[in-house]
Design a protein that fits this description.
single chain; 265 residues; 2 domains; Arc Repressor Mutant, subunit A; Beta-Lactamase; 46% helix; 5-stranded antiparallel beta sheet
């Protein structure tokens, strides 16, 4: 991680005592795994700070949370994928407003009205509450730090400020590598990191991008429209976006120009 070692930040960034405390926790978590501080450590420390069930970081591309950098559990991966497939959810709102979105109960009527497709789907995969924070620097909105809790309830007192600080640290980490994505070194205990992502997340992203490119050629449409068709088919058939993309890449599935999203003429 360029300029971000296992235990230190530049002195001029340590004037906030709370920042120093949180950076110390990140350093301890990373050192126990034999690596420099990474976004995976931010997710883990954020979960512990808020007594939450899981966390993930998604990088933004084209104004939306388009690919996941790190997740703490499979539920996080599903929540991130659902928002990508459905085109709605707290992470989209965070990037649109550059402000945190805090949902203490995904079963409340307001959540259902705000995200009529995402809210019930999120509850179905095991999320009762969801909290999302923008990763921003100046006018650049580069991603989202999102966290969930299995049971509905608000953030504990004193947690909000810590999560804002951790979101700022995640922003620095996300922008610290030359290609603008999270760097890092392989974790000898947990997962290897490829281009800032665990291999399965990188493979998922690559397949979605490849499937979108194949649909562009098959349907003779721009990339944005091809991606919409991919998402629509996954949603209409209640399938995971990555599974549909994998079938298209393997040529087990073909979406024709005169075919509806569910495969019918």
């Amino acid at each position: 991680m360029a300029g971000l070692g296992t235990g230190t930040l530049p002195d001029d960034q340590m004037t906030d005592p709370r920042l120093a405390v949180l950076w110390g926790r990140l350093a301890v978590h990373a050192a126990a795994r034999g690596r420099s501080v990474s976004i995976a450590d931010v997710c883990a420390v954020a979960c512990a700070a808020g007594h939450l069930s899981g966390a993930w970081v998604a990088a933004a591309r084209g104004g939306g949370p388009e690919f996941v950098i790190s997740v703490t559990d499979p539920v996080c991966e599903r929540l991130a994928e659902l928002q990508l497939t459905l085109g709605e959810g707290p992470c989209h709102d965070v990037l649109a407003t550059a402000a945190p979105v805090l949902v203490a109960d995904l079963g409340e009527r307001d959540a259902g009205h705000r995200w009529p497709a995402f809210a019930p789907a999120a509850r179905g995969v095991g999320a009762g509450a969801l909290f999302a924070f923008p990763l921003i620097i100046g006018a650049i909105r580069c991603g989202v730090l999102a966290l969930y809790r299995r049971s509905p309830s608000p953030l504990p007192d004193g947690t909000f400020g810590d999560l804002l600080i951790l979101a700022d640290i995640a922003t620095i980490l996300l922008l610290s590598s030359p290609d603008g994505e999270a760097g890092g070194v392989p974790d000898s205990d947990d997962e290897l990191v490829f281009d800032g992502q665990a291999p399965d997340l990188a493979m998922h992203r690559a397949e979605v991008d490849q499937a979108t490119g194949m649909l562009m050629a098959q349907l003779r449409v721009p990339a944005a429209q091809a991606f919409v068709r991919l998402r629509a088919y996954a949603y209409a058939n209640d399938r995971r976006l990555g599974d549909v993309a994998g079938d298209i890449v393997a040529r087990r599935l073909r979406l024709d120009a005169d075919t509806a999203p569910d495969g019918d003429p």
